[in-house]
Records
---
Amino acid sequence: MLPYSVSGQKLWLSPQRCIYWEDQSALIVSDLHFGKTGHFRKSGIAVPQHVYKEDLQRLVSLIQYFKPGELIIAGDLFHSHMNQELELFKRWRGDLDHLTIRLIMGNHDILQDQWYKETGILVHEKTWEATPFLFCHDAADRSSHQLAHTYYSFTGHIHPGISIHGTGRQSLRFPCFYFTDNYCVLPAFSRFTGTYRIQPGNGDQVFAIVNNEILQLN
């Protein structure tokens, strides 16, 4: 893990694709896309279910390690409509009913409101603020918020990745945390996702996740 401070708050960047907000005892994640493998199987694409189970177990392990009071999800907790994998999540949620789960809705979060209520998930349409931070799924949504210029934002959506070049023309792309002066883009928590290659500007900070380690690239 790597310590990182922003807006006077102490954060811990984890190679397991999450941030622990120490001052508020909160775990911050984005783009879990639970149910995605089941969605693919329903479409006739043979994606093994263990992919989903490994992501869920990784989340459980992080909760057991950090013991947060709250789980903040910056969008895309689920991938699509109801399937068997979401029933597994529902049973898992029942074992952690003491944990506050807060979801800032993403473009893939299309389940009925009643389902979120039954699983004890607090839902926010586009943004949610917790001084001194603002949380949203898409960075485009922060621009219209009245606190966008005074609160530091955490977003997801694009599944940021950074290319690391080797000898010759060889390069590999890795998921990353992407910090600008005004907002951070979180890596997709799900390992069953692609990445979008970011192009950092001057002053931006990028932390690549490589072989369960975090590498600061600038």
---
Amino acid sequence: MHIRSALPRDVPALDRIALEAKAHWGYSQAQIDSWRADLATRPETVAAWPTFVAEVDGDVVGFAQIDPITTPWELISLFVEPCRVGQGIGAELVRKAMLKAHQSGIEVLHIDADPNALGFYRSFGAQEVAAVPAPIENAPDRVRPQLRLPTRGA
């Protein structure tokens, strides 16, 4: 596996991976379709914001993106192809994001997490600081955990 800075030409792969990864959690196709715009990576942000891709044999298999305009900086995307989950790719991308933030003087990253990813982020030391109501069909009590991830562990 190789991690590199993303390029504008990677955007179609990033969008595909985000949709596939979200669908992996069992959300309905209608729900995924309703999130399509929110899951899309804006091409202009790829060069302007810290955005990293993981490659295996030259293929993009995961990515992470940080929004450095927010305070604190926010890890707005972290997605890995479902067939690659459990191979350490997401972990390497989180560490890369943490390191970039830490090197830039940022002490914590904010994460608006999918509830299915809470345990993953906690394994890096993320702390839940709030929850945002995020009801969906068949899950009216669903919430998105709001996390703070210290970057000093990078």
